[in-house]
Specification:
By secondary structure, this protein is mostly helical. The chain contains eight helices and no strands. Helices cover 66% and strands 0% of the residues. Helix 5 packs across helix 7 and helix 5 crosses helix 8. The radius of gyration is 21 Å and the shape is globular. The N and C termini lie far apart (43 Å).
């Protein structure tokens, strides 16, 4: 099953059209031959041979583990946070520098978008490319967060960060407790909702550009609050799908380099949640 995360859906843990990954859940006692996309490796059980049967195979050291995913995710998110803090300090949004800061932020966002698309279409994860994406994304987030905190809602950035952390922890706990069960129906619902959400946001942007004002009103007022909540809920659903992909990857013995892809996808999802949280809290404080 593919994740709705744009990284996982294009180059994630799936094996459609020859791409390595995971479609079926692992069977009890280990993945069965024919469902494990890495079953052809010399350490996987052969046809008719169960795990633990026959001669003891040497332990593999090149497979992805949860520790690998945690480490790579910490490195990627750490890069985002570091560059965000530096851009907040070095690119002030006061009246004297606001034009320059906004210009750099928009440029960084475009570069981050291009890098993310390049990585999404690559067959193998490239750590340098992923970390470069994180650095440019951090520059964009730092300037935008500084502008929102300075001109719209002072103190909202800390609240958005804490809210993002709370969503991550809550979804992880619910997933581990199996309160959230990732099925094909769940995946289909999330994808349909995400497509509808993005189409409405694009329509709102076009109306805003050509019609002026707030377009269809999805970025302010009551509608803005509703769509902010929907955006955060969608981000939480993306997290559940990403957790499922990581869990299957570890269970199937994906190559260790795939942990970079997992970190990349999780970072994209957390950035989505943070931006939606920042927008929602800004609207709420602006209405006070």
């Amino acid at each position: 099953m593919r994740s709705s995360n744009p990284v996982f859906s294009r180059r994630g843990f799936s094996r459609d059209n020859g791409h390595a990954g995971f479609n079926a859940a692992p069977q009890a006692g280990g993945p069965a031959v024919g469902t494990n996309p890495y079953a052809t490796n010399p350490y996987a059980p052969q046809q008719g041979e169960a795990y633990g049967a026959g001669p003891q195979a040497p332990a593999r050291t090149d497979v992805m583990t949860i520790d690998d995913v945690v480490t790579r995710t910490a490195m990627t998110l750490g890069t985002v946070i570091l560059t965000a803090v530096l851009s907040w300090v070095l690119l002030p949004v006061d009246e004297a520098n606001i034009g320059r800061s906004y210009g750099i932020a928009i440029g960084a966002a475009l570069v981050a978008l291009v890098l993310s698309l390049v990585q999404s279409f690559k067959r193998r994860p490239t750590p340098a490319l992923i970390l470069a994406y994180a650095a440019f994304e951090g520059v964009f987030l730092g300037v935008i967060s500084s502008a929102v905190s300075t001109y719209i809602a002072p103190g909202v950035v800390i609240q958005a960060v804490m809210g993002t952390m709370a969503v991550f922890a809550g979804v992880l706990f619910a997933y581990k407790m199996r309160w959230i069960r990732v099925t094909r129906r769940f995946y289909g619902f999330v994808m349909a909702a995400a497509m509808g959400f993005l189409l409405l946001m694009v329509a709102n942007m076009l109306f805003s550009v050509f019609g002026g004002g707030d377009g269809l009103g999805f970025r302010s007022g009551g509608l803005g609050i509703i769509f902010g909540i929907v955006g955060i809920v969608l981000g939480a659903c993306f997290l559940a799908l990403d957790f499922k992909q990581v869990e299957d990857g570890v269970a199937y013995g994906a190559p260790r380099e795939e942990s970079w892809l997992a970190a990349f996808g999780l970072t994209l999802t957390l950035v989505w949640i943070y931006l939606e949280m920042l927008r929602l809290l800004s609207i709420l404080q602006g209405n006070d």
